[in-house]
Amino acid sequence: MQKTKTVLTLLATLGASVLSAVTADETHANLQSVTSTGTSAWNGSFPFTIRGVLLCDPEEMLDYTPNFIPWNNGANAGKLGGEWQITFQAVAPGDRGGTTCWMGQNYANRVPPHDDQFSYSNEAWVAEINRLNFDPSSGRKFRAGDLVQITARQALFFGGKRNLNEGHDVDPSANFDISLVTSNYGLPAPEIITLADVVQPGGAPSDPNAWPAIFDQTRATGGEHYQGMRVRINGLTLATTGGWNPTNLWDARKCTVTDGAGRYFLLRHPRYSLGTAPTNKFDAVGIFTQESGSGVQGTNGYELFVQQVIPQDPPVLGIAQQIAITWPVSGAIYQLEQRTDLNSTHWFPVTNTPAVIDGQNTVLVPPASNPQQFYRLRKTN
User: Fold this and answer.
1) Phi, psi torsion values for 109, nearest 5 degrees
2) Residue 271 burial by CB count (10 A; 0-12/13-18/19+): exposed, middle or buried?
3) Distance in angstroms (rounded) separating the CA atoms of residues 160 and 302
4) How high is the pLDDT of residue 7?
5) Which residue did the predictor score with more confidence, 356 or 245?
6) How far is CA 218 from its chain centroid?
7) Mean pLDDT within 258-270
8) If we measure between CA atoms, which residue out of 135, 140, 166, 142 comes closest to residue 56?
9) Nearest-5° angle of CA 81, CA 85, CA 91?
10) Which of 105, 186, 239, 326 makes an SS bond possible with 81, Cβ 3.0 to 4.6 Å?
11) Cα separation, 75 vs 296, whole angstroms
């Protein structure tokens, strides 16, 4: 009897463990809900799973090159070495928004007890990056446009949004896992906005903290409405260009833009080239995100992580003097030929394809360097 009771107790314990490991489905809208001060209002539990489409490749935002740096009695405080980050956007009906995932190599240089065993060695960091960059079932590397599912066991609020991460903990029990649902699912169409949708006029152009961001706790309007999503901001002009450089570090890849109506906003350059900084108006497509720089408030600091620039330069009219050669449209097919020497027996085909204009085969021929040009039609059928 005692043996039977022990077995039943063991089974009950195992059953409780299994139940505690069951993951719930979470939405981006719920995970990113906020209070009146912009801090996280999420009150869910771990672990949970959440789905979305990747908005960027893993290499676009941060440099995850291994770079272990010891604490060294505080000499390397804040130096995180390799960092990794992606953002994925909701796709389920009724869900909205997006979530960022982040992890760093040298946690010990950021949080107590500043013991190097709480950072990743270079070898361990490479293993973690490979675990996150490749689907565990197929071995396929994740790319922007893939539909993925993430199992989260930790999440922290910082900068105005709740990030999926390891809670600055290298223990495997804190891992988040990514699995492929559908490869090449497709990027969502960017929502088209202007600066008037996310910021009010005013504030010093050189002080982003003073720009009056439009904050709405309900997330029905303003920056919160677009956070974590792919958008296109129209009608921008660069006010500063110092951060327009893919080789800069994260904090130095920021530029200020304006709409010319007293509104200012930050763009953050990716780790790949977008070409030279636009000098005229342009539209920018990318990930609308938030970096308030604070763990206790999140009502400002909205910005766009740029992935594409669309110039709005006015079209330039082209005027050129050309020779129009025409002949009637008929059932026969003719090849237009030309030569520069009247006495030559060699003719050369004119490769321009005729266009039919007002019932006439028409070929436009630009003026040649030779002032004499002779043309003929040769029947080919």
Assistant:
1) -85, 0
2) middle
3) 9
4) 36
5) 245
6) 25
7) 97
8) 142
9) 170
10) 105
11) 26
pLDDT at residue 14 is higher than 60: no
What letter does residue 114 receive in the DSSP assignment? -
191-311, what's its fold? OB fold (Dihydrolipoamide Acetyltransferase, E2P) (2.40.50)
Topology, domain 21-182:
OB fold (Dihydrolipoamide Acetyltransferase, E2P) (2.40.50)
Cβ–Cβ < 8 Å for 288, 228: yes
Residue the block writes with tokens 């804190």: 174
DSSP strands (E only) in 90-174: 98-104, 147-152, 155-158, 161-164
Across 242-261, average pLDDT: 97
Please give the helix or strand (H or E) that residue 337 lies within, else none. Answer: strand 334-339
Per-residue pLDDT, averaged over 42-62, amounts to: 97
In the predicted model, is pLDDT for residue 125 greater than 60? yes
Hunting for tokens 């002009």 — which residue is that?
Answer: 237
Neighbour order of strands in the sheet with 355-357: 323-328, 360-365, 355-357
CA 180 – CA 141 distance, rounded (Å): 9
Predicted local confidence at residue 17, as pLDDT = 41
- Ramachandran angles phi, psi of 288, nearest 5°: -80, 120
Cis peptide before 113 (omega within 30 of 0): yes
pLDDT of residue 222: 98
pTM, two decimal places: 0.79
